Amino acid sequence: MKNFVIPSIDLLDGQIVRLFKGNYGEKTVYNVEISAILSKYQSFERLHIVDLNGAKGDGISNIEIIKEIRAKFDGKIQIGGGIRNLKIAKSVLELGVNSIVLGTVAITNFELTKEILAKLGAEKVILAIDCNLENGKYFPKANGWLESGKLDLFETLKQYEAIASEVLITDISVDGTMQGANLELYRQIKSRFPQLKLQASGGVSCVEDLENLKKIVDFAIVGKALYEGIIEDL
Ligand code: AMZ
Description:
Helices cover 32% and strands 29% of the residues. It has one domain: TIM Barrel, CATH 3.20.20.70. The mean pLDDT is 95. The radius of gyration is 16 Å and the shape is globular. The protein is built from 10 helices and 13 strands. It is an alpha/beta fold. The protein binds aminoimidazole 4-carboxamide ribonucleotide (AMZ). Aminoimidazole 4-carboxamide ribonucleotide binds next to helix 2, strand 6 and helix 5.
């Protein structure tokens, strides 16, 4: 499980937080030292870091914590939030992280995203297509999940199926709720895009969720359930 589960560390204004359904107004602040969290997560293969200031469009602003995490965590790190052009993408990789996560750009600017994939290599770029169900279709959300993309999730993934390697899909309606993962959504994605490595995010609440997800996807991102010790001993 430790190479399947990717613990998430979400940063906002220099603090470790968790948002409820991505809503910046509904945050839980975890007053713990980074080193304490990292010693808990050290045995995992990979970490997912989100700069929530960056994701809102305010520029990456938690660099010092990100550097600290990079220095102290031995495994792989993927980082997202505020990576909106090639220059920022390169500068984030220069921090020594293994891959970058593109959300807003992947949803709003297909050409730029394809250029970044081609220039940096698909193995270094994860596309985050985080979405909500609206009128029977999943629509991707950009800019801190406050704006909708024009194409639905499946049309968006079609843009990248020939060039991307790995995608992260959050069901926003269950993110930070521990209500259970949306297995049906991930089944649909895997059956239509079997060649894409798939990271599932949102709603994981127990080991059974992880066992079910493991039959469908390649990785599961877990935030709250790990922070709060609801899932332990993987
Ligand atoms: O919780 C939110 N409102 C939120 C969030 N967790 N909004 C964006 N993000 C994450 C995405 C992805 O990892 O899951 O931020 C990253 C994308 O940032 P950007 O700046 O590329 O859209």
